[in-house]
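Entry 12.
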Amino acid sequence: MRYRASGNPRLRYRQLLVNGLLHHDNIPIDPKCTELIRDLMRVKQKEDYTKDDSDKARTHSSDTLDYYCNFEYDLPGRTSGVTIVKR
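Predicted 3D structure (tokens):
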């Protein structure tokens, strides 16, 4: 039996989750992950809470971290916008 996520988790929820995990040192980031570190330091948030993707080299790594954290640390009872469906 295989499962897949249907839909993307809400951006604002992912941002709050990742920021909280980073703030409390709950996500170890290897110093060799230079692209992720660069992303986390350089990506800016626009007023509508979306990420500024004007630099096409940015956001990919941090988006990956967002999705991982949402999958790994999603809180029961929270609506993240993702439904797990059986394939």
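Annotation: Residues 3-86 form one domain. The helical segments are 11-23, 34-42, 60-73.
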